[in-house]
Design a protein that fits this description.
Blueprint lengths: L21 H4 L8 H4 L3 E2 L2 H13 L15 E6 L5 H9 L8 E7 L2 E6 H6 L1 H5 L6 E4 L5 E6 L3 E6 L10 H5 L1
């Protein structure tokens, strides 16, 4: 079976088979509540390779952080000790709808689909899964997010970025 965005969810695997599961299920980290764990969709090898190859075929990361002129705007944030609330606010302000499923790709064999709101809420879990980079995107590549291994986040977009006011309870919850 050939995997693409129309059937990618056919290669979702159980969390117990996901190599990076410890970041979400272990008591050594902030274990996610079951309600949120059920919304994470770890991808099998075929789907993970599809996402990895997609970023290579489009040459998304042809330059750091993104291929020159791929996006109209590129914004940047720095992750530092104690900046969790600021990073959540910054991610929220990118204007991606909360329920939108986004595609995460760490390595050729590690990928996941999550709702944008969970990426915001638990960004540190996703960002710290490996010592490498994390690419987050939508299927049209109208925007992409790069969590760089040197604690920088880049957001590239081809649309106007809307600054959205945030309910402070979201940051704390």
């Amino acid at each position: 079976m050939t995997i693409d965005f129309t059937n990618i969810t056919e290669d979702v695997i159980p969390m117990t088979e996901f190599r990076l599961r410890h970041r979400f299920t272990s008591e050594n980290y902030e274990k996610l509540p079951n309600f949120h764990l059920k919304q994470l969709k770890p991808l099998g090898k075929k789907a993970a390779h599809f996402l990895w190859d997609y970023t290579l075929r489009t040459n998304l990361h042809g330059n750091k952080p993104f291929k020159k002129d791929f996006f109209r705007t590129i914004e940047r944030a720095r992750i530092s000790e104690g900046s969790e609330k600021e990073i959540k606010l910054w991610l929220f302000q990118r204007g991606v709808p909360f329920e939108k499923p986004v595609y995460l790709s760490w390595q050729p064999a590690e990928a996941m689909i999550v709702p944008w709101k969970l990426l915001i809420r638990y960004f540190d879990h996703f960002h710290n899964c490996t010592c490498g980079d994390l690419t987050v995107m939508d299927q049209n590549l109208s925007w992409a997010l790069l969590f760089h291994h040197q604690d920088e986040i880049f957001f590239g977009s081809n649309s106007e970025v809307k600054i959205i006011q945030m309910n402070q309870e979201f940051l704390i919850a």
